[in-house]
Design a protein that fits this description.
This protein has three domains: about 200 residues, no CATH class; about 350 residues, no CATH class; about 90 residues, no CATH class. Helix content is about 45%, strand content about 15%. A hairpin with a 2-residue loop joins strand 16 and strand 17. Helix 1 runs antiparallel to helix 2, helix 1 packs antiparallel against helix 4 and helix 1 runs antiparallel to helix 6.
């Protein structure tokens, strides 16, 4: 059975705790799923470093580094779904080595008070930024880092000071436990939302990671990268019920993202405030509900398209217009307006569909028979696909509808959405950007199998287009009852940015569908009237609109989490009490051993006729009388190290009892020799 020197083990575990707390946010941003594995690797290296035998340390480290290299080489198959092997493996390896380097620096710095405090100041500044963005996680990390810092300082002091001033371990253990207890309490009481709006995006932007997408953007030409969800308030909506806000519709798929089709003068119409939009509503023969909506800006939104519910019948108030008129893109149905700033507001009259899906499902005519009723412009623009689109995407779309025996257009849409919900996973982190020449949708469907709304909406639209079904990519904000801040009032944040699709149905027009698992359009109970896959996330708020509970903007402390925290607190309390009791017993034993040693030294001085001021070196004649002069130097070194503090160059770890026993044996031997006269000089 392997054993570790206790002090070396404690030092290694404290270094590991400090580095894990300080680098925790970096690990989360690099690769959330790999973070735990890397920390296990660090812990194993730390435990190995506690061995005093260089041979054991070297062998253990060689095995661990070879195992970690094998894990990094096969990172694409390490987890339950494929990952972007090149980028992830590089980050995985770099993060593994960075933690080891950090631990080496910590072991160097903790004995040098100035350097150690500088390290901790830098760590605390970074963790304060994390606390402003994610209070619960930040507070826990801060207190963990602070506790490890104080414990290492106390350990360094103990190593420097003489043992004549005994180390007050119970007091230090009690202070550490009190800090952890305060940290846990603050974490439970801390607000669940960001304390400073916009801080999440700022903090994560400081970390080296894959390209990210944050909030709502007007540029969707190059999609990909992890998603940074920032609860920065942007809009306030006053409406009778929650309404998704549709901002921009894009019809050209480039293979890397979506772009607006080139528009000329004939594609732009002029509309006046208070008048119906030219061309009428984008849908027909579907029940809808008319309502007035007021949108107020609380922040800056990067768009020149008017954010509004689907669909706008008329604009009632809009600041910044020249001649009380604005432009409308008649091909993609985008409303163009001058950018608005915080504090400005506009009013609309919207026609919101009322659960249109049963009406669409009632049409049993095959889609092939209705394709001729699709306008030529819609066929030309909204079934476009790049020539470089991999054939595998078309083949997958055809196989899906064939296996589901989907003949009608609505059944084809349902089959595609159900396939995505059952085969792809919703995830916002560790999402790579497509490589040059790699198709964005093909990467999602055949390589990653995970992504967020951009991935799901793009895949649904492209596969439908491959079947000849007109579809387009829409972006905006998903709003539900969780956004409510008062009666008929909803606040929209950056974290609510969302994407979905619109599908053209002959005789009905454009109808939105949400292909992202766990999300539905607000105007219908479900976007596809079929059984949800077992793993699909259920609603956490409104019955009409579900958000994945992992969304940073909607996190709540649930009962299981509270139970786990309480259980952890009880376990921590029990461990702290046991540790304090063990330390108290150990210190008491050490004091008794030291007192015994002092009594033996006094007896030796008396036997040699030495004064009380005599040093341990003056006891050499006693060892000579006992015939043990050869062992006196080793005993003296051990006793001085024990009395005056451990020298870093010394590896002696002799107990008080051993020192007292050796001295007592010399004293008895000298007395025997004196008694029979054989030891007199």
């Amino acid at each position: 059975m392997l054993a570790w020197p206790r002090q070396r083990l404690v030092r290694s575990l404290l270094c590991f705790t400090w580095v894990t707390a300080a680098l925790g946010p970096v690990g989360w941003a690099f690769a959330r799923q790999a973070d735990v594995e890397v920390e296990v690797f660090w812990l194993a290296v730390c435990l190995s470093a506690s061995w005093t035998s260089r041979r054991k340390r070297g062998a253990a480290w060689a095995v661990l580094f070879l195992a970690q290299a094998a894990v990094i080489a096969g990172v694409g198959h390490l987890f339950s779904r494929p990952m972007a092997s090149d980028a992830t493996a590089w980050r995985f390896g770099a993060f593994s080595l960075a933690g080891l380097a950090a631990m080496a620096l910590v072991r160097y710095a903790y004995r040098r008070t100035g350097t150690w405090l500088l390290y901790n100041a830098a760590a605390q500044v970074a963790l304060v930024g994390v606390s402003l963005a994610h209070p619960v996680a930040g507070v826990i990390l801060e207190f963990t880092c602070l506790t490890a810092m104080l414990a290492l300082l106390a350990l360094a002091r103990r190593e420097r000071e003489a043992t004549s001033a005994p180390f007050d371990s119970p007091r230090v253990a009690g202070a550490a436990f009190f800090i952890l207890l305060c940290g846990g309490a603050c974490a439970l009481l801390a607000p669940r939302e960001s304390l400073v709006p916009g801080m999440t995006r700022f903090v994560i932007s400081l970390l080296v990671q894959a390209p990210t997408r944050t909030g709502y953007s007007l540029d969707d030409s190059h999609l990909g990268g992890s998603l940074v969800a920032d609860p920065l308030p942007l809009l306030e909506i006053r409406a009778p019920s929650p309404l998704d806000l549709r901002g921009q519709v894009l019809s050209e798929y480039t293979g890397q993202g979506w772009a607006s089709i080139p528009l000329d003068g004939s594609d732009i119409a002029t509309a006046a405030v208070g008048q119906p939009l030219p061309g009428g509503l984008p849908f027909a023969h579907l029940p809808y509900r008319a309502m007035k909506v007021t949108v107020s800006l609380k922040g800056t939104v990067d768009t020149t398209d008017l954010l509004a519910p689907y669909a706008v019948d008329r604009v009632l108030k809009l600041p910044g217009l020249y001649g009380n008129q604005f432009a409308v893109d008649t091909v993609q149905d985008n409303i163009k307006a001058a950018p608005l700033g915080p504090g400005q507001s506009y009013e609309l009259e919207a026609a919101v569909p009322a659960d249109p899906y049963p009406r669409l499902a009632s049409v049993r005519a095959p889609f092939a028979a209705l394709r001729r009723d699709i306008p030529a412009m819609v066929r030309a623009v909204d079934t476009q696909l790049p020539a470089e689109l991999p054939r595998s995407v078309r083949q997958l779309a055809e196989r899906i509808v064939q296996q589901q025996h989907a003949v009608t257009e609505y059944d084809m849409v349902s089959a595609i959405i159900q396939y995505l919900a059952g085969h792809e996973q919703y995830e916002i982190s560790d999402i790579p950007v497509p490589k040059p020449g790699q198709d964005y949708v093909a990467q999602f469907l055949f390589a990653m199998h995970c992504g967020y709304c951009d991935n799901f909406a793009s895949a649904a639209a492209v596969m439908l287009r491959a079947l000849g079904v007109p579809a387009r990519f829409a972006t905006g904000f998903a709003v539900d009852a969780q956004n409510a801040v008062g009666p008929d009032t909803y606040v929209v944040t950056e974290a609510d940015a969302h994407a979905w699709i619109e599908v053209y149905f002959p005789n009905f027009g454009w109808v939105p569908f949400d292909a992202t698992p766990g999300f539905t359009m607000t105007f219908a109970p479900v976007s596809v009237p079929a059984h949800q896959p077992a793993h699909t996330k259920s609603s956490t708020g409104s019955p009409h609109h579900a958000k994945p509970p992992a969304s940073p903007s909607g996190a709540r402390l649930h009962l299981p989490m509270a139970a786990s925290v309480a259980g952890g607190g009880v376990a921590l309390l029990g461990g702290a009490l046991w540790a304090a009791r063990w330390v108290r017993r150990r210190n008491a034993s050490a004091r008794l051993g030291r007192d015994e040693f002092v009594r033996c030294v006094q007896s030796a001085r008396a036997a040699l006729g030495l004064p009380a001021s005599a040093t341990l070196r003056d006891l050499c004649p006693l060892a000579e009388r006992a015939g043990a002069s050869g062992g006196f130097d080793a005993w003296l070194r051990a006793a001085e190290v024990k009395l005056y503090g451990r020298d870093a160059a010394q590896q002696v770890d002799t107990s008080w009892h051993d020192l007292s026993t050796t001295l007592a044996e010399w004293l008895q031997a000298a007395k025997r020799l004196d008694a029979d006269g054989s030891g007199r000089r």
